[in-house]
Amino acid sequence: MRPFAYERVPDPAAAQRAVPVGSSSAAAPVPTMVLAGGTTLLDLMKLDVLRPERLLDIRPLESRLGAIRLDGQGLRLGALARMAQVADDVEVRREFPVLAESLALAASAQLRNMATLGGNVLQRTRCSYYRDVSYAACNKRNPGSGCAALDGYNRLHAVLGTSEHCIASYPGDFAQALMALDAVVEIEGPQGGRSMPFAELHRAPGDRPDIETTLRPGELITAFQVPAGPWAKRSRYVKVRDRQSYAFAAASAAVALDLDGDRVRGVRIALGGVATRPWRATDAEAALAGQRLDEASAMRAAEVAFRDARTHGENDDKPELGRRTLVRALLEAQRMEIA
């Protein structure tokens, strides 16, 4: 790990001197980055992928930005709330089960005790070409250098939202649950506070895979607002992975259902492990709306969700795996007993 300066910040105004967006790598170091739980950042610093000159530790802000609040309007989660804290919260598990499940299935118990919600949604890809600086060709790490994964090892890479410049998959779980529940992200920055749909936080790779979010320089995520809705209780997160513990998704699905008997009155679907960013399958939702939910209609919706999938050799099985994962999530949500 390279030398860096360390500073604990007492308030958001001090933290906003950070530059948490853009690229920080062997090719393009940045002066300052934000440290929350550190479970991703410190890993990448040890690998020499990220080279910040200074870390701003925002953990002193946890008392202000770590609360969990539920009322008639919905759920508000502070960005510095710990993953384990939210996964174990009784009200979250009862009212928004997809959120609790997505967090409980992520990482390991030790990491969930440290990692924050804000840091989790901003975690970097697990693509081995990004994480290994001996590979020069990685447009996320070294813009303009190419994408070694296109013709390399890409079994766990994305099949949705890819470009000729990057096929790295987004690795998180919690983000899919937020997408499925139409969450809003609250942000503070030098120009003041703002809110936006969580679906607008992450960018498609396009020709600039190194720019992963729409955050502006100096902005910090402070909270997530999850609205109450008729589908929130009947929600499910299904994650398929190589092993049952501490593995990233080969495919996952977050679904939220509003049913009238066995007919779909409303549905929300987000996919993980298969796309370059958290992925909302709105066309699949439209295909299910008003339909009787059974295995056949779920599979038709899954076919719609993956009709634009593009594979790259070793991940040719991903569309089928993604379809089956989505069908399973829909049918499991249908069978949930709602109090």
From TrEMBL:
Keywords: FAD, Flavoprotein. Residues 1-231 form the FAD-binding PCMH-type domain. It comes from the Bacteria. It holds the Pfam family FAD_binding_5. The keyword Flavoprotein applies. The keyword Flavoprotein applies. InterPro entries: CO_DH_flav_C, CO_DH_flav_C_dom_sf, Diverse_Substr_Oxidored, FAD-bd_PCMH, FAD-bd_PCMH-like_sf, FAD-bd_PCMH_sub1, FAD-bd_PCMH_sub2, Mopterin_DH_FAD-bd. This is FAD-binding molybdopterin dehydrogenase.
